[in-house]
Amino acid sequence: MLEASLFPTSARFCYVKTSPDEIDLNNYRDLHPLEQSLVSHSVDIRKSEFGDARWCAHQALRDLGYDKGQPILRGERGVPLWPDEVCGSMTHTRGFRAAVVAPRLLVRAMGLDAEPADELPPEVLGSIAREGELAQLERLAANGVTAPDRLLFCAKEATYKAWFPMTHRWLGFEQAEIDIREDGTFISYLLVRPTPVPFIDGRWVERDGFYVAATAVL
């Protein structure tokens, strides 16, 4: 599912693939009590997704040599609070959870998002896509991309996840224009000022019924 080619060479990642409606609370129950408390009042499927994603994050941190058993808590707008020396990102959707981390000395920020490779509801596309992005969706569809509107959404989510830790500012769907290429890369042009970087590079894959998009700022 996840491939090393999606990420900087210094990154480490982990993922879990499950049945879409499977509820397994083992990873949730193994979390630090402070992590459990973040979703303690949620339904079991939410606890299952959260527990699996946090488990992936701890595995990736361990592979990087930074896991000291400390909880990964949440900051402003739910952003994960990684160890000071690390940047990273997590994602979860029905049937898939994942995390990626990298040393902050080498990677400034990362974003990771996974979505089912199904078309968006018709009313959603107009709220996420800029006019200049609509033509490329037709091109991607003509070149065999299954649900390019969902891929666009996935790339925008991965862009936001890299943007927010650098700026602590909201980034609306209309504030980034995504250029998606058939070769599995994309560029997110940031349309807000001030901005720490003019664009964010990304990569994407379609695997086993999911789109996965990853961004990195070096």
Model description:
InterPro entries: 4-PPantetheinyl_Trfase_dom, 4-PPantetheinyl_Trfase_dom_sf, 4PPT_N, Enbac_synth_compD-like. Its EC number is 2.7.8.7. This is 4'-phosphopantetheinyl transferase Npt. One of its GO terms (biological process) is enterobactin biosynthetic process. The chain has 6 helices and 10 strands; from the N terminus they run E-H-H-H-E-E-E-E-E-H-H-H-E-E-E-E. With 218 residues, the protein is an alpha+beta fold. It has 2 domains: 104 residues, Ribosomal Protein L22, Chain A, CATH 3.90.470; 104 residues, 4'-phosphopantetheinyl transferase domain (Ribosomal Protein L22, Chain A), CATH 3.90.470.20. The strands form 3 sheets. It has a 5-stranded antiparallel beta sheet with strand order 6-10-9-8-7. The protein is globular, with a radius of gyration of 17 Å. The two termini are 24 Å apart. The model has no long low-confidence stretch (mean pLDDT 96).
CATH topology of the largest domain: Ribosomal Protein L22, Chain A
The CATH superfamily of the largest domain is 4'-phosphopantetheinyl transferase domain
Distance between termini? 24 Å
- Reading the helices and strands in chain order gives EHHHEEEEEHHHEEEE
Task: Domain count, please report it.
Answer: 2
Overall, the morphology is globular
The chain-level mean pLDDT equals: 96
Name of the CATH class of the largest domain = Alpha Beta
Specify the number of helices.
Answer: 6
Per DSSP E runs of 2 or more residues, the count of β-strands stands at 10
In this structure, how is the largest beta sheet organized? 5 strands, antiparallel
Looking across the biggest beta sheet, what order are the strands in?
6-10-9-8-7
Structural class: alpha+beta
Instruction: Supply Rg.
Output: 17 Å
Cofactor: Mg(2+)
Domain 4'-phosphopantetheinyl transferase: 110-196
Keywords: Magnesium, Metal-binding, Transferase
Binding site for CoA: 46, 54, 91-92, 113, 157, 161, 171
